[in-house]
């Protein structure tokens, strides 16, 4: 077993580690089909061999060529480290700076098998969200981080460590860019080639920025989405007895099962990959698994027999309003079509809310499996005949939508979860058009448009922190601190809309501890606004200084946030001034965070809805109890929220207008250009006539 000290020595070359190839018994990424020419295959090999001295290149070339032929990419399986991959306490890392040790902890958490979707292929979530492109990069990065000082910055080009460059103590220790491809060449086909060549990488959001915290990272947002869907669509505060049907139990979508239970409803979640189902069930995120559609329908009909749910006094989950998460091992299209059959034959609508979290940003490379084939058969077809696979996926999407449409016409409320489901369904020819709408709108709303968009405009988003001691007591202390800060803010006075969010947050923190949400690092996510983030950061930093928290705390957020992402089919889908396809906000956020105190920053092409569809960025900021850390947090976190609120205000959002005006009242050095509304629409018509 390799130690952390050995990991930090750099690539193990003399002697070379044993090549064990792909490990059995763990999930693996789908085979990629980059369709390289003979010359491009040579280039891919040449690029991979650049990491190694000439005397061992011949031996490695043979196995790298085999990996490229079998899997469509050179992962360098020989260098998969023989170590228990997890987030170790920060003091265990042999580093010269706490900042570098914190980054190493976050990297190893992203690759922890309990966290990562395909750990041996360095995929954290989303089917193709890479931490690195190959294992040589992992070894080099860990070595650089162990050696660097506070006067240096590590530069990452799409997984490749370009090197450690001189900087200064106030600069970020790490700068990451992923997938920064010239726009005209940012297509899926070009991406497959460039990834195979080892020259670019799809980092999703928090995979390539080293800030993923397991499915908890999306649970809070999913809980808020389901609760607010109930408020908006069903006009209820209490979702008990309501049925929510969706799909996906992978890295991000795995949050849906836990979120359904916390929200108090019955969640039926379809998943084709049994390994994903078993993983979530073992972790306690999924209460029951069934491959029987009759079983699922009986649940919705309140007829489920007691022996299947031994933990309940009765199996009538819906009738008795028992919160439940059921994983259906099968294709979600079969589930939707069975619900249509029940509607047609019995007249009963058995589902109240619906969505989808298949990895539709990557539909033709294993993100979506067609209903016409079983899982293993579909994987085989993907590797042998990707053209046929694509055709079946598009046919499946049309059936998928047709079933949803039938149920929605009878009163089921469906929303797009920002995974490009409706976008890909439209491209497949499915009936998702919203007549008279702009091109970012469909028959069903994005969850941002109807549910989360106003939350973003109020400045609330997925703030998070990681306790680097690895001690659950430290996490409990931060939970207590956050709850106290929110309660104090309510007492001091906030607007009605903000107060509701704060109450939801307090409920979340209480529920989070009870539901054992930690997978991997000791982390917490909390949808908070600018005032909340800054106040919580300051309070946590002071607790570190006073010894009430034993080790530094890493602050971060999902890129899916107020300012972090420009994505016209998701985060900025409720921007209606024509700028939804512009990416100034995300780029400015990356730059602004870098010089306002972030420990590391990242900027990505792709994430959420897919390659070429979004620009997004994130950060990590290490709180170590120092006065300097407090000042960095105040400055950087304020910008990190106000940037997006100001942009949303300029686009015409009333909540954002009120929020940024309040921010300017609280900080006299903040001056934002405010829009004037056109109060008389007739002047536009009159002007156009001339």
UniProtKB/TrEMBL annotation:
Belongs to the urocanase family. Residues 454-660 form the Urocanase C-terminal domain. Keywords: Histidine metabolism, Lyase, NAD. GO terms for molecular function: urocanate hydratase activity. It catalyses: 4-imidazolone-5-propanoate = trans-urocanate + H2O. InterPro entries: Urocanase, Urocanase-like, Urocanase_C, Urocanase_central_sf, Urocanase_CS, Urocanase_N, Urocanase_Rossmann-like, Urocanase_sf. Residues 214-451 form the Urocanase Rossmann-like domain. This is Urocanate hydratase. Pathway: Amino-acid degradation; L-histidine degradation into L-glutamate; N-formimidoyl-L-glutamate from L-histidine: step 2/3. Its cofactor is NAD(+). Pfam families: Urocanase (PF01175), Urocanase_C (PF17392), Urocanase_N (PF17391). Its EC number is 4.2.1.49. GO terms for biological process: L-histidine catabolic process to glutamate and formamide; L-histidine catabolic process to glutamate and formate. SUPFAM superfamilies: Urocanase. Residues 85-211 form the Urocanase N-terminal domain. It comes from Otus sunia.
